[in-house]
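dude i think i finally got it to work??
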Amino acid sequence: MNLIDKIDEKYKFSIKEKDSISINTLRLIKSAIKDKQISLRGKKDNLTDGDVLSLLQSLIKQRKDSIEAFNKANRQDLIDKEQTEIDIIETFLPKQKSENETIEIVEKIIKENNFSSLKDMGKLMNIIKSEYVGVVDMGVVGKIAKNNLDK
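look at this
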């Protein structure tokens, strides 16, 4: 069962359970997937699980950005709503690597490919995006890569 099917199953289950928060969040995910499918029409037949994972990660990033803004505005009710949505979206993502594991991955790729300067950062990020989709936080990877390539 691919990721889109799992999202559909969870959506149907949420409707049966009358869980309005999950229904709304899953509807939002399904809408984002549909938008992505429409934008790729003619180029690609179906979205891969990797495409869906990156889409889910971008949805989570949007929620985290919103939480920051709501934090500045002291809107705890909206912070809680966004955090609940993040929790629901994260159920479809694989377990994220810890920061230490991410550091090891980045350092290993830098050594294997003899990357030495910040000019190599794009190549490094492409390798990580293709091999570790949905498993590492790309924001953390960027910081680690800058630190290691600066040396």
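Residues 3-90 form a domain with the Hypothetical Protein Yqey; Chain: A; domain1 fold (CATH 1.10.1510.10).
im so relieved honestly
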